[in-house]
Design brief:
This protein has 127 residues and is an all-alpha fold. It has a single domain, classed as Non-ribosomal Peptide Synthetase Peptidyl Carrier Protein, Chain A, CATH 1.10.1200. It is 59% helix and 0% strand. The chain is built from 5 helices and no strands. Helix 1 packs across helix 2, helix 1 (4-23) packs across helix 4 and helix 4 runs parallel beside helix 5. Mean pLDDT is 85; it is low at 117-127.
């Protein structure tokens, strides 16, 4: 079972990936999601199967895929207000793993928390 922090981190990866794709245009974003879905990678699985996402994008886009992944990692660091000391040649998977460890150890929260995460459920007597 994932902790709240790990779940938030996974949702933040999805948020960052979607933000990067959206910045490149709705048409491009839909094409990327179609490519991923053809390889059986659903949108909600992007963060939990990010290594597979990288592999599929690299097979499809070639070296250009690295730009998408690099921008996603850079955005992820910004979400946690940590300087993104990431160079284009770094292992981006390693950078994500290091960031996740730091987020969990320091109990960091992203700038844009996932929707409904902090809301408590409505109880019958609260209505």
């Amino acid at each position: 079972m994932r902790t709240l922090s790990a779940t938030t981190f996974q949702e933040t990866i999805n948020y960052c990936f979607t933000s990067v794709l959206a910045s490149m245009g709705a048409g491009f974003q839909e094409v990327i999601y179609e490519v991923l879905e053809k390889k059986r990678l659903r949108r909600e699985e992007i963060s939990s199967r990010f290594n597979d996402v990288i592999k599929v994008l690299t097979e499809t886009l070639g070296p250009s895929a690295r730009v998408l992944i690099f921008k996603t990692v850079e955005q992820l660091y910004k979400e946690y207000s940590i300087p993104a000391e990431v160079s284009y040649n770094d292992s981006l998977n390693d950078r994500i793993t290091l960031l996740q460890s730091r987020v969990e150890a320091e109990h960091l929260h992203p700038k844009h928390p996932p929707p409904n995460e902090w809301k408590t459920p409505i109880r019958n007597n609260d209505r």
